[in-house]
Amino acid sequence: MANKAEKMKARLPRGFVDREPHDLRAAEKMLATIREVYERYGFDPIETPLVEYTDALGKFLPDLDRPNEGVFSLQDDDEQWLSLRYDLTAPLARHVAENFNEIQLPFRTYRNGWVFRNEKPGPGRFRQFMQFDADTVGAPGVSADAEMCMMAADTLERLGIQRGDYMIRVNNRKVLDGVLEAIGLAGDDNAGRRLNVLRAIDKLDKFGAEGVKLLLGEGRRDESGDFTKGAGLDAAAIAKVLDFTAAGAEDGQQTITNLRAVVEGNARGMEGVEELAQMQTLFDAGGYAGRVKIDPSVVRGLEYYTGPVYEAELQFDVTNEKGEKVVFGSVGGGGRYDGLVSRFRGQPVPATGFSIGVSRLMTALKNLGKLGTEETLAPVVITVMDGDAESLGHYQKFTQDLRDAGIRAEMYQGNWKKFGNQLKYADRRNAPLAIIQGGDERANGEVQIKDLIEGKRLSGEIESNEEWRASRPAQVTVKEADLVAEVKRILSQQAEDRLQEQSRQAQ
């Protein structure tokens, strides 16, 4: 006897998730809102492919001799390395460079789509996630950067996040570069140590000044005993960096004054401070004071940023997996990256952009109760009493008439001979109505409409025949020609009942 074929095991790859209908619909609603704001600002959509040549993704990614480290890669049949995109910015830079003579500068565009990281997955850390980006290419002035920050604020508010629950925090990498130059970390030879300094500053909110001081020096040991190697700066250099991170004040103009004192004598640092001063003027003029804040602790980890950098941070508390109250934190960020397009063109091409982490923002909106939780109405189910071609034709016409009227509808596709299973199916689908027509109804040109919502209510609440007779009927018979109108009427009544119930619960 032949061995039974081994069944394949159904396994979801680590770091990836399946998405359910309610999540997909909520995401689409959120994306439509973001798109509406970006369009209002004059940005137009483009789409780039999921796959790029690995070398086009930029030096901030792993070395070319390890193309599968950090990104998902494969070799083409011509031995060219291809990778799934790591973010949406590098593909945009390639697109602009490749179409440079055809596009209109400044090039204002937005994109949303999946990006992929070949990294170790963990709680809340996925290998596939969605970003929504907006970029302006070909605008050298910081007014383009200020616009990104203002658009980020408008987007969060349009999604229902109130002022006080968010802050757009802004810094300038030129200021930080000036500080790093002043402590002797300029040049390519110090790229690794500079990155360690950036990572240390980025932990300011998490570890505080004392923790960052350790990370800037010899290193830090956490509560579990794990040791993180530090940047190895001496005491004077650490003090200079901490002076920079402590320059922030509630008032933007005061922060700028403090930063001038920190980078005094360094041309690059002063250039960055003056750019922040220009941005502050635009924020004040646009009415964004209190929504956008100059904050020296914002560094952004990617190496390709060359000027202003910004983060959208949500400031309400949530409970983490350890049961601790923590600030929700960043849901997006970006900055100026004047070098990315230049890698392809060999000439300066200024650019700035902002990216929203869609999944993280969705989580935030759920925490705030701002993610439209209303369920999409399930379809009306047209039951099948007879499976011959003529009868099926009648059922199909009912289905199509309802669809043509804008009503979700489906004809039952299972084993029609067990009618009870059809009603069970409709019940599991949360169908609002079932349409029934047997031989007698068809002979009379009639159809039955079963109100499944009202039927459930009646079965649970009514205890006497008198109450049953006084209630709204859970099943009606109408002429075929009146089917669509009657279905609309009942669905409207159900919607009104839901609103009244929601009103009672709210009270």
Automatic annotation (TrEMBL):
UniProt-listed GO biological process terms: histidyl-tRNA aminoacylation
Predominant subcellular localization, coarse grouping: cytoplasm
Gene3D superfamilies registered for this protein in UniProt: Anticodon-binding domain, Bira Bifunctional Protein, Domain 2
PROSITE patterns: AA_TRNA_LIGASE_II (PS50862)
Intracellular or extracellular location(s): Cytoplasm
Residues binding L-histidine: 87-89, 117, 131, 135, 300, 304-305
Domain Aminoacyl-transfer RNA synthetases class-II family profile: 1-379
A cellular-component GO term for this protein: cytoplasm
Keyword Amino-acid biosynthesis: no
Subunit field text: Homodimer.
Protein name: Histidine--tRNA ligase
